[in-house]
Amino acid sequence: MPERPNHRGTTPDPIYPTDTSALLAFLEPQMNRLAEAHPDAMISAHTMLGAYVAVRGSEQLLGHRAEGLLDRFAYDLMHEQDLAVVARSHKERLRGNAGSVRYRIRHADGSYVAVETTTVIARSAEHEALVCVTRRLPAT
After folding, report:
1. pLDDT tens digits for range 23-58
2. What's the domain count of the chain?
3. C-alpha 42: how far from chain center
């Protein structure tokens, strides 16, 4: 795993955008549309390697404040038994294939929540990010 920056936007590394304000301005319209269409979901944007750069709805789904997730890797919260399936799905997303994956993610209270995340790549000439819609799965 790459080393994490001490605070947002200061690491000159392609993993972490140096101009987060421009990236967030690019992502805002798409995240707004997704939040309106999926009010019960967590909407997040990530670097191509999975670090959170923007989050909405995380308190409702996971009990985590959005600020506490920024610059963290989504993998840090996943159940260790689900890491391989999520990594395979992540590789498919990086190849440009939209899709979904089911896994367990850690709630702020330490329990795990079963979720499904649908991911697409948002791209422009200057920016690219993974944009995700994560929903809680019904208890089985």
Report:
1. 899 999 999 999 999 999 999 999 988 899 999 999
2. 1
3. 9
